[in-house]
Design goal:
Rossmann fold, about 190 residues, alpha/beta, 6 helices, globular, 6-stranded parallel β-sheet
C-alpha cells in the first residue's frame, strides 16, 4: 500500500500524483491519495501559502493515515510505502521516522526533504529521492538530505525535467523509478 503525501497547495486530485498512482496500481500496489488539509485550511492556504510549509502539521496527518491503514482490516497486514511530492515529501519522511515499523519505503518526487532535516537520521525506510535535472536548487537540497539519511537511500535525477516533471517522458520516468523502488521494498 502506497500512501501519497501531497504538498505545496496540491491535493488528492493532483494529475501528476494520480498518474504515478495509476502506474503503481497496474503493478499490483494499492494506493491511497488523500488531502492533507481540510477544505477550510485549503482556503486559508490559497490566500496565505502558510499551511503548505507547516510540515509538522502535514507530518501529523501522514502519521495518522499510516496508523489508520495499519488498523483497517483490508490494509492492516500490508506493508506501507509513502510517496511524497514537494513539501509532502517532508511529511512522508516525518511519518517514516515516527513509524519506523510501519513505513517500509519512501519515494520523494521533487521533494523538500530539507524541511524534515531533524527527522532524517531517524528514518529507517529505504528512501528514493527523485529530482528533475533542471531543478538545481532542489537537487542541492536533496543531495544535502541524502547525507543525513542513515538508511539505504538513493538520489535519481531525471535529465531535462523541471520541478513539476511536465516535460515529455519525465513523469513516466518518475512512475517507473517509484514502481521499481516500491516493488523492491514492499513486495
Amino acid at each position: 500500500m502506497v500512501l501519497f503525501a501531497h504538498g505545496s497547495g496540491s491535493g488528492r486530485f493532483s494529475p501528476r500524483n494520480r498518474a504515478v498512482a495509476a502506474t503503481l496500481r497496474r503493478s499490483g500496489l494499492g494506493t491511497l491519495l488523500m488531502d492533507l488539509l481540510t477544505p477550510e485550511e485549503e482556503e486559508e492556504d490559497v490566500r496565505t501559502a502558510r499551511l503548505r510549509f507547516d510540515v509538522g502539521l502535514l507530518g501529523e496527518r501522514v502519521v495518522a493515515a499510516v496508523d489508520w491503514l495499519g488498523h483497517e482490516p483490508k490494509t492492516g497486514a500490508l506493508p506501507i510505502g509513502c510517496f511524497g511530492a514537494s513539501t509532502g515529501a517532508a511529511a512522508a519522511l516525518i511519518a517514516a521516522a515516527e513509524r519506523p515499523a510501519a513505513v517500509r519505503a519512501v519515494v520523494s518526487r521533487g521533494g523538500r526533504p530539507d524541511l524534515a532535516a531533524e527527522h532524517l537520521p531517524a528514518v529507517r525506510a529505504p528512501t528514493l529521492l527523485i529530482v528533475g535535472g533542471g531543478d538545481e536548487p532542489v537537487i542541492r537540497m536533496n543531495r544535502d538530505a541524502l547525507q543525513l539519511l542513515k538508511t539505504e537511500a538513493s538520489l535519481e535525477v531525471v535529465p531535462g525535467a523541471t520541478h513539476l516533471f511536465e516535460e515529455p517522458g519525465a513523469l513516466e520516468a518518475v512512475a517507473r523509478l517509484a514502481t521499481e523502488w516500491f516493488l523492491r521494498f514492499l513486495v
